[in-house]
Amino acid sequence: MSGVTGKSAVFFFSALALTCIAQKRWKKSKGSRHKRGDTDGNHDISQRGESLLTPTLPYIMDYLKCLQDHCDPYTNPRGHIPLCMSENKLIIELLGVRLLQIETASRSFSDSSVYCYNNTLGLPGPREALAYFLAKHFLFPERRDMTFGDSLSYIRPELVCYGAGASSLISHLALCLAERGDAVLIPAPYYAAFDVDLNIIAGCIAVPVYCSGDPSKGPSPRDLENAALEAEAKGMRVRMLLITNPSNPIGSIYTPQVMKAAINWARSRDMHTICDEIYALSTFDGQFESIIRTLNNELGDDVHHIWALSKDFGASGFRMGTLYTQNEKLLRSLANLNIFSGVSHPMQMIIAEIFLDDNWVYDFLYQAREKIRHSYELCTRMLDEMVIPFFPAKAGIFVYADFSSLLPEPTAEGEAKFASLLLDAARIIMTPGAAQHDQKPGMFRICYCFVSPELLLMAMQRLDNIIVKIRTRRIHWDDLTPESISDIIA
């Protein structure tokens, strides 16, 4: 018995000693890791995790700062006014009233299929509703009397699907259609988050296409070829073309001829084309033609149509994008990917009911376009009064303006300095051109639908005040500080 007790004691003290040694080694290794600079607590994530720490938008932190002190005309008139986020908040109430109908919610949850696993590309009914919606508003917008049955004979429901937003679907397309390191051509200036959408998972590289002529008219085949050759000279394989039409940030509508020429060029190089038409129904001055119609609904295996509810329906928070492709092999690949980014079944049922409510959709889109037009005219009228050039828009929920004459120097640094002054002194933020790969410093996107017309007017008055200060040169640029021009905000 005493022998056993002695052995137990030896074992206990040996284990204790080993534990102390292990703890010292762990503390030493922890300290060495901190000495290497891992003092932010992120040393426990992978290199891939580290790569995700960069903000998806370069101006997102300034935007979040604005939200912490959001302007209210009555309770916080000196607060911040963000004009950098492309959301249409003017139409949220219109959509909300329709969705709050008791029958809509009850129908969406009374079907047992919404509670169960199903095809990750979408439930059968909602996919049929999406096919109907695309046929009626994209393929044949003039045929308001088109029947449900006729629409499904044009666009097959099995060729459309839902995903958690347009960004998710574009990321998935890049993953399925290209290899890591491949180039994706995008006419510049373009949506700032495309760089991350294409790279963060798929590892593709966005390559700007700079137009030799007016960028609002879109790229020519020569422009595309020049960009492709430049990318190839850097060792990249050019695999895809991504075109947003109507364009973001310019708000122009590319003609069917421009779109068809771009697709023909891509086909001559055996490339895929993604047509992002997320602003297709937010037109207010000009006729938009979808690529589905331009190609006579013959997309082939290489043209892929993207749309979402985030812009035209003001529902970015729904995370609901749509894809129409005639590449069935691609859809089978997406069916596996979409397990991570599908749209919830109740939400599919709710939106399916909206897509099939013709009278409401037509009335909603009419009211939405009128609200967009009103804010656009308010914004551009004041830009004219400030003598600030801008691209006349025909669609979208923003205007692209040229503030280059106000910069302290015609560089990216000068643009950043002007943007900082706007944020600190005028408490407004617009989307800087550098974030959208514009070669000309001083270009800014003004998202006039993010705020009410009343707040938009206040923001434009602040902008006018700061422009007057800069132009009159009463204060040198180096002395322009929030303190020296504290009267910018009335």
Quaternary structure annotation = single chain
The gyration radius over C-alpha positions equals: 27 Å
Give the % helix. 40-55%
Main pleated sheet:
7 strands, mixed
Strand content: 5-15%
Query: Care to count the β-strands?
Result: 12
Please characterize this protein's 3D structure.
There is one protein chain. The protein is 46% helix and 11% strand. It has helices at 2-35, 47-51, 60-68, 92-99, 102-110, 124-139, 148-154, 166-177, 194-199, 221-233, 256-268, 291-294, 309-312, 328-337, 345-356, 358-386, 412-426, 453-472; strands at 81-83, 160-163, 183-187, 205-209, 238-244, 272-276, 303-308, 321-325, 390-391, 399-402, 428-432, 443-446. The strands form two sheets. The protein has a seven-stranded mixed β-sheet with strand order 2-8-7-6-5-3-4, sandwiched between helices. The longest helix has 34 residues, at 2-35. It starts with a helix and ends in an 18-residue tail after the last helix. Mean pLDDT is 89; it is low at 1-22 and 29-39.
Write the layout of secondary structure elements.
Layout: H1 2-35, H2 47-51, H3 60-68, E1 81-83, H4 92-99, H5 102-110, H6 124-139, H7 148-154, E2 160-163, H8 166-177, E3 183-187, H9 194-199, E4 205-209, H10 221-233, E5 238-244, H11 256-268, E6 272-276, H12 291-294, E7 303-308, H13 309-312, E8 321-325, H14 328-337, H15 345-356, H16 358-386, E9 390-391, E10 399-402, H17 412-426, E11 428-432, E12 443-446, H18 453-472
Parallel strand pairs: 1-11, 3-4, 3-5, 5-6, 6-7
Antiparallel strand pairs: 2-8, 7-8, 9-10, 10-12, 11-12
Helix pairs in contact: 5-15, 6-7, 6-15, 8-14, 16-18
